[in-house]
Amino acid sequence: DPATLMAGLLHDTVEDTEYGLEDLRRDFGDVVTLLVDGVTKLDKVKFGEAAQAETVRKMVVAMAKDPRVLVIKLADRLHNMRTMRYLKREKQEKKARETLEIYAPLAHRLGMNTIKWELEDLAFAILYPKMYDEIVRLVAERAPKRDEYLAVVTDEVQQDLRAARIKATVTGRPKHYYSVYQKMIVRGRDFAEIYDLVGIRVLVDTVRDCYAALGTVHARWNPVPGRFKDYIAMPKFNMYQSLHTTVIGPGGKPVELQIRTFDMHRRAEYGIAAHWKYKQEAVAGASKVRTDAPKSSGKSKDDHLNDMAWLRQLLDWQKETEDP
């Protein structure tokens, strides 16, 4: 989305220079000006110690008239967290706490898990450095053995899917340091129990292939009762879609699997930002279509309906927050 990219590059200009909103409107148009103005207003929000994180999150969303303002703000916060080492310790901790309580949950709400995970790990390293270093050390120690087992599981899944003529990409799922820490605290388990649980991701072309792949996996390994979740039929609040299952894999060890389409995966990784990417691709594709040779945009009717449902849900959430 060109307007979002331009606003992202220009978001500090009004605040830090004499270049005002009218200058911005003259040179870049109304949309970019609206986005920059929205980010500037968010930058002025002060997070008091007594403020409830949920209240602040609602206020931030209500202030952002366009969801792209939130995307730019999240990118700005991610950049700040990556360069936090240049600030005083006290300010680092304040920003890291804001990040964990406000910005990481916002990223999750927008479905932007790639940003959410990095924000959490960066904040975790600042707020709990000893625990962070310990988990990093433990991960490094156990990684070779875990990767060896992961390769065996991945190979067996790929063989079964090929035999079933299901085109798929099978990879291991990365473990994020803050996620490991949270599970240790919330579930009261030790590191080995959490980290040694292998996660596999299976990406396929269609929804039908998702269920076919699930049947193929369950035919090889017994599923763990109560661990199957169908988020394709019943998406999460941020429109995340996937099939989740846990099976008893080689050597009697539990293996977690996520099965989804490539479109669902992009949405799971980049959230609302993926919607604009699709929109730009659709526009570009439409402009190249000849009248005598119509082509598919690459997205099914169901995918477009999912995108619209997602945006409607976000707008409903935004409307709710305008009068908390």
From TrEMBL:
One of its GO terms (cellular component) is plasma membrane. CDD domains: HDc, NT_Rel-Spo_like. Residues 1-81 form the HD domain. It holds the Pfam family RelA_SpoT. SMART domains: RelA_SpoT. GO terms for biological process: guanosine tetraphosphate metabolic process. Pathway: Purine metabolism. It comes from the Bacteria. Belongs to the RelA/SpoT family. This is PpGpp synthetase. The lineage of its organism: Bacteria, Bacillati, Actinomycetota, Actinomycetes, Kitasatosporales.
